[in-house]
Amino acid sequence: MKNTARLFKALADETRLRILALLARGELCVCDLMTVLDLPQSTVSRHLAYLRNAGWVEDRRQGVWMYYRLAEGDHLLQRELLPLLAARLEEIPEARKDLSALNGYLADKPGRCG
Fold first, then answer.
1. Which of 51, 99, 100, 109 could be 57's S-S partner, Cβ–Cβ 3.0 to 4.6 Å?
2. Residue closest to 55 by CA, chosen among 67, 68, 72, 43
3. What is the pLDDT of residues 75-104, one digit of tens each?
4. CA distances for 113 relative to 12, 61, 65, 87, 109, angstroms
5. How far is it, in rounded angstroms, from Cα 114 to Cα 24?
């Protein structure tokens, strides 16, 4: 029961939902998320740590940069919720705005971080 509560608690924050909506598009660097969300690195990293500890995201380091992607999930409920969550988040106006900003940002970005 604690794992289930932890999964849902992680979804109880607007910034974390916005991050999940962006990561549903694919792996992103912290710098990408900072730019699109217009938030400082410390805030983005804190929310990513919360999502990682709850099992929603996985990370990898490449040099000094951290990249995040949606986790496959060990929890059956999480695996079932993830596709639904990704689809429904795209319907929220703020998430659509974030995704549009991300697409524009990535189109203008010369390359990956690092």
1. 51
2. 72
3. 788 889 988 998 999 899 999 999 999 999
4. 29, 11, 7, 27, 9
5. 22
**Could you say which architecture CATH assigns to the domain 2-100?**
Orthogonal Bundle (1.10)
Cα end-to-end span (Å), the chain: 40
Q: Residue ranges of the domains in the chain?
A: 2-100
Q: Helix, strand, or coil here: 100?
A: helix
The DSSP output letter for 97 is: H
Q: pTM above the 0.70 mark?
A: yes
Which helix (H) or strand (E) segment is 77 a member of? helix 76-89
Q: How many residues in the chain? A: 114
